[in-house]
Structure formats: C-alpha cells, structure tokens
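S1.2 Input.
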Amino acid sequence: MKQPLVDHVATIPALEELPASPSAPRRMTLNMGPQHPSTHGVLRIVIELEGETIKTAIPDIGFLHTGIEKQCEFTNWAQTVTLTDRVDYLSNLANNLVYALTVEKLLQLEIPAKAQWMRVMLAEIDRLNSHLVWLGTHALDIGAMSMFFYCFREREEVLRLKEMFSGQRMMTSYIRPGGLALEPPRGWDKMVGKFIRQFPGRVDEYENLLDNNPIWKIRTQGVGYISIEDMLDLGVTGPMVRAAGIPLDVRKTEPYSSYEKFDFKVCTATENDVYARYRVRLEEMRESAKIIEQAIAGMPEGAWQANAPGVVLPDREKMKTQMESLIYHFKIVTEGYRVPVGEVFQAVESPRGEIAYYAVSDGTQKPYRLHMRTPSFGNLQALPTLLKDTLIADSIAALGSMDFVLGDTDR
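S1.3 Output.
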C-alpha cells in the first residue's frame, strides 16, 4: 500500500537515530520548500538523505488551501464558474469546461454545435498555454534559460487570444453552463489562425534546442522512473502515464463536446522517464495545434449559446430593450437558477491529466456538494515513489516532470 500525502507536519516521521557504528551510513533530514521556486508552487517536501541519495520524500501540502470545494456550496450555480477558474490557474478553461458539462448534464441542456466546437478550440489553446509554462519553467530548473524566454514568448500570444475572447488574460470564466460567456469577437478566426500557423515552427525550435543537447539528455534520460503498476495504483493520469506507454486520454476514451469529430492522436512514449514526459508534451502541443486548425476550418454556423432563458444570461442589447430579458438577467444574477435534483460525474482531459467533477443537486440554486477530482493531487501521491533512491541532484528534474499545480492540489 502506497504512502498517502500528508497535510500537516505532525504526521511526518522523525529522523531515525544515528547508527552506533561510525562506518554505517548516516541519514539527514532536509526541507525542500515550501518557498523553493523549483517546487512549482508552495509545496514542502521532507527529504531523508543517505549521502546524496533520497531514501524517503514526503510531500507536505495545504499551504495554498482555499476551500474552493466548500465555497461552492455557498455560491449559486452561476457564480460557481468564477471559482473553477482558480482551481488550476494555468488551465482555467479546462475547469470551466468540466463544470459546464456537469451542470448541463443535470439540466439535460443541449448545447449548440458552434459552442461545442469553440469549447474544444479554447480548451486546446489553454493546453498550449499550460504546456508552454511547464516547458519553460522545467527547462529553467535544469539550466536551459533560453527555453524560458522562447516559451513565454508564445505564451504571451496565447494570453492575448484569451483576452480577445473574454477580456481577461487568465481567469476568463469564458466557458459557462449553456455555452459561452460572450459572442466570439469579430476576426477571431484570423487572429487564432495567424498564431496557430506559425506555432508548429516554434515547437520545432524547442525540439532543435533540447532534443540532442547533451546536458539536457544527461539530466533527463533515465531519471524519474516509476513503474506503471505504481502509477495506476496511485491514480496517476495524463502525460505521466502516456510517457509509460499507456494511451489513456479522456478525449478519446470518453469523448465530450464533439471531440469525436476531430482527428488527432494520443501521444505516447515507452521510456517512462523525464525525457519521455518532455517528448510527450512536445508532441501534444503539435496535436493541439492540429485540433485548433480543424476547429477554425470546420466551425459550424449558428448560436453560441443554448436557448435556455432561465439559465443563460440574455443578450445585453435585448436586456436594454425587452422587459422579459431584463427580468431574466436580474433573477440569474441575484438568485441564480434551480437545478433538478440529482447527481452526476463528468471527466475531461486537462493538460495535467483527468479532471472530474462530481456534483450533487438538491433542487436549489446552490450545489449541495461539488467534489473535484484533480489530476495534480493524484499525480503528487506518486512523488514518494518517484523520488525514492534518486540522487538529490535529480530530484528537481523528476518532480518538475510531473507538472502539478498546487492550487489544483489543495483546492
């Protein structure tokens, strides 16, 4: 049975007594974090060393605990969208999407084809956003500073696209139950098309810089191995398991929002190390670019919101001229809307792995319960196994390859 995550210091085992024999190996306890920048957030890891080899590594989480799941019980169904933005702040649209799909299941609401395709396109744009942040910061951890500047160059363009659609760079709340928050802006296809046509060439640049770089290969190949059995036992998903040869991707196994209409492959590798995870994410960026191109070329005509007056905010122009629309707007904003009694489970594929929401409705305007199965929490459970018997010099490369977000972990 694998060692679970701890959320308070009291459960961390004390340092073993030093052996009586002076020739026997001695162990030292070392704190990594929670302020360490290369732990990719406020994560504390209690490491027990034998020389330079890690014998135990116990994650101590909870420093970023926001209580978002509990907050959802005190906000109405419409207001909860803004909370989902803040779970995984590097991929907020994936959380918007899984929440919207969950509520729409409870409402039995049919979403127009255009809104579904726009959701797919935006989710893939945000996948690029997340993978670019990961690659830039991960390479910086290992010493490849130029990659950080290159990746953030493209990430800035992605944030501009998000701002064009929603008016916000990060916490967009753009995907909502019933469709989208705003009508897609004029010229969106030209702006997104211009970016996505040049993006594969940028990925080629990353590949040329890192693939055959001897320092990069030494620091990543053969580092951070964890068995497939351990990963499956601990609930690891996403690029971690795909880099071990398992083609597990919710977009293919349980398609949602019209993903079954897009042609893309699930990227895998077999080496199961830091280098393989880098290669998988690099290929995933290429596949995301293909999906975005297909979305632009085949975008259906029609409405971008469902015809659900009591759920979807009315058009602002109608709100100013039609009393009925004004009343709907007032009631949705102040009271929210009632959701039928029931419980549903919905999963999507975020950049970090499978994210799933389990929602329970008691028929009121607020969720009775909203549980979030986040990939970062599941993946982080594998950290003790991943770092065991690893050199401390390799620990940052190994844990960085997991690509966890602490907001996604603590919630």
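S1.4 Remarks. Residues 6-10, 14-18 have pLDDT under 50 and may be disordered.
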